[in-house]
Specification:
The complex is a heterodimer. Chain A contains 7 helices and 13 strands. Chain A is of the alpha/beta class. Chain A has one domain: HUPs (Rossmann fold), CATH 3.40.50. In chain A, strand 7 and strand 8 form a beta hairpin. The longest helix of chain A is centred in the first third of the chain and has 17 residues. The radius of gyration of chain A is 21 Å and the shape is globular. In chain A, about 45% of the residues are buried. By secondary structure, chain B is an alpha/beta fold. Classes of the chains: A alpha/beta, B alpha/beta. Strand 9 of chain A pairs antiparallel with strand 13 of chain B. Bound molecules: flavin-adenine dinucleotide.
């Protein structure tokens, strides 16, 4: 099976976020980045499917030059090659525009299966996989917790709300958005890291793909949310905070 | 020129009923209808939905569309997209609103794409400003907010986050029901969908717990779970967790709180090292009192916390264990 995995680089989870001077995005200058967590699970799932059924795993990433670090990590974990849609100003595209870039690059590969994380930790639209599928005319399924190959295509386990699940049979080619926790993530081996250096990374630009930014939707302003809730913050050292909280639990909330 | 609200139907004990978030989306639609002076219509899709449509006809709406078809008996993205694309072409709405449910995540982006549009997903507030609608949504799992603007002619699409609008605000009234028969072909539905199931009988019922100590990724390692286990033990509380803790297998899945786990409402919910992503909040914000311990003063969990401690859990929790023991005379 030829599997394409769309991965994204995002700011590291514990980053202290600061707004930039434009007020439209965060200051990315000193931010560490990492692979979007659900995308890491999508990559792992692709690698496991390949190990079971053979084929090829191609990582696809749209992002600035520094995203090549995330691509190298995907190659080190076992992706066979990668496509980097290099663009330093993806913010000019709306989510449909970015999905168009990805879909166009994906179409050139004619994969059997396209996987991606169910949403990104930064923008959090949760739509890219579904929009790509529609652009490519493929069926899609979201929030996937299990993938099995069948004679007719694949059978997936989709997560529903409140702890419910459901199975779905889908013909290939198809697009799946993968939920965190579907598998156990692997670490790159030393051997993998060495090999990654020799693997092919194809670079494409929006010009190569022939897709301009014509946004329908614009992000006008980013800001800290206003807190509506009156939280009583307990000051002091850890010991003082703990003592005060125990007192509150005993005498105000009365649960001790 | 109108606002269309797409209601979600769920099967409960083999009866069709409303997804609770549908009413929140409807409340948003009615509020915007008043502000923008636009007619508001609601849509329900399925098979055997006459009773549901009748229920909607008792709301303050200009129209209720009941899209009836055998092929809509169960949800599929293909079926829903085709049916709603047909209705959108007929009605030409300015704005289409959805509740931001898992099902909407599955088909609404596809519908918007089919019409060459962008869905603004997981919106917490819609504001009318000079020059058009501003949709507010969260970035970075609730750490920041952002204003989005949709340009050009409609229809614009937005899905409304759980709890952003209040279901009780839906206004009663009366509306006519128009039954719509969409053009659907069985061959156009490419997937086969199985019946919903639960993984196993839940051994732990957190919904009955009066005290919950809940742990998140701030705990860092599996070995550190013992620390919060000890706190739960001395407090006489049930132990719960955010999703990543269960994904990692540090605690069993049945202890997960949130949209894909359990919904709890204890007297006290003590959130330790949990950031407060919306998918977690929906599972615990009904708690009588919420206490949060987090090293990040800007963590969204404080938005729902009655009491907050900004600090390092590895210092605060050991101290708290001692203080609770003292308070209980242990
Ligand atoms: C469809 C879908 C369904 C989901 N369902 C659920 C669900 O049911 N339940 C759920 O919980 N999540 C769910 N999630 C995931 C959710 O979006 C968040 O990713 C998750 O809740 C984050 O867990 P967390 O708060 O433990 O981790 P993080 O977001 O990583 O937060 C860790 C927190 O710990 C704090 N911290 C770190 N170190 C310390 C320290 N030493 N002392 C004190 N504080 C510290 C940090 O400041 C941070 O706030 C779902 C997501 C999706 C997309």
């Amino acid at each position: 099976m030829k599997i394409l995995v769309a991965i994204k680089q995002v700011p590291s989870r514990d980053s202290q976020l600061r707004l930039d001077t434009s007020g439209r995005w965060i200051d990315e200058a000193d931010l560490a980045s990492e692979i979007n967590e659900p995308d890491a699970y999508a990559l792992e799932e692709a690698l496991q499917i390949k190990e079971k059924h053979g084929g090829e795993v191609v990582a696809l990433c749209a992002g600035p030059a520094r995203a090549s670090q995330t691509i190298r990590e995907a190659l080190a974990k076992g992706a066979d090659r990668a496509i980097h849609i290099e663009n330093d100003d993806l913010g000019r595209y709306d989510l449909l525009g970015v999905a168009r870039l990805l879909a166009k690059a994906a179409a050139g590969e004619t994969p059997d299966l396209i996987l991606t994380g169910l949403q990104s930790d930064d923008l959090g639209y949760g739509q890219t996989g579904v929009v790509m599928a529609e652009l490519l005319g493929l069926p899609a399924a979201t929030i996937i917790m299990q993938v099995e190959k069948t004679d007719a295509g694949i059978r997936v386990k989709r997560e529903l709300e409140d702890g419910w699940f459901q199975h779905m049979d889908i013909p290939l080619p198809a697009v799946l958005t993968i939920q965190s926790g579907i598998n156990k993530l692997r670490y790159a081996t030393l051997m993998g890291i060495k090999k990654a250096k020799t693997k092919e990374v194809k670079r494409l630009t929006s010009v190569d793909l022939g897709i301009d930014a014509v946004p329908n939707v614009s992000l006008d302003r980013v800001y800290l949310p206003q807190r509506a809730k009156q939280t009583t913050f307990i000051p002091g050292s850890a010991r003082e905070q703990a003592a005060k909280l125990a007192e509150i639990l005993k005498f105000e909330v009365r649960v001790l | 020129m109108s606002i269309l609200v797409v209601m979600e139907v769920v099967m409960e004990q083999s009866r069709l009923t409303w997804h609770r978030m549908s009413w929140e989306a409807l409340a948003a639609g009615q509020e915007l209808g008043r502000q923008m002076d636009l007619p508001v219509a609601a849509v329900v899709l399925g098979q055997g939905i006459a009773a549901l449509a009748a229920e909607l006809s008792a709301k303050k709406l200009d129209k209720v569309y009941a899209i009836e078809h055998d092929l809509l008996a169960g949800y599929t993205a293909d079926g829903y997209t085709a049916a709603l694309a047909g209705l959108a072409a007929q009605v030409n709405p300015t704005l289409v609103l959805f509740p931001h449910t898992y099902q909407v995540r599955d088909f609404a982006p596809k519908l918007a794409t089919r019409l060459g549009k962008v869905l603004i997903s997981d919106v917490v507030r819609v504001r009318l400003e000079e020059g058009g609608l501003v949709m507010v949504r969260q970035l970075f799992q609730g750490k920041l907010n952002a204003d989005y603007r949709a340009s050009g002619a409609g229809p614009h699409f937005a899905s409304i986050q759980a709890g952003a609008y209040r279901a009780e605000m839906v206004e009663a009234g009366s509306a006519q029901v128009e039954t719509v028969t969409p053009v659907l072909e069985a061959a156009a539905i490419r997937v086969k969908v199985g019946a919903p199931f639960r993984e196993s009988q839940r051994a732990v019922d957190l919904t009955a717990a009066e005290l919950i100590v809940s742990v998140g990724r701030g705990i860092k390692e599996k070995d550190n779970i013992a620390l919060v286990e000890e706190l739960a033990r001395v407090m006489g509380a049930e132990l719960a967790a955010s999703r990543p803790i269960c994904d990692n297998g540090w605690l069993p899945m049945e202890r997960q709180v949130g949209s894909s786990g359990q919904t709890v409402s204890p007297k006290v919910y003590l959130a330790i090292g949990i950031s407060g992503a919306i998918q977690h909040l929906v599972g615990m914000k009904g708690s009588k009192a919420v206490v949060a311990i987090n090293k990040d003063a800007n963590a969204p969990i404080f938005e729902v916390a009655d009491y907050g401690i900004v600090g390092d859990l590895f210092e605060v929790v050991p101290a708290l264990i001692e203080e609770v023991k003292k308070a209980k005379g242990l």
